[in-house]
Amino acid sequence: QVQVVESGGGLVQPGGSLRLSCAASGTVFSIGNMGWYRQAPGKQRELVASISTYGSNINYADSVKGRFTISRDNVKRTVYLQMNSLKPDDTAVYYCNIWESGSGRDYWGQGTQVTVSS
Question: If you ran DSSP here, which 8-state letter would residue 14 be given?
Answer without folding.
Answer: T
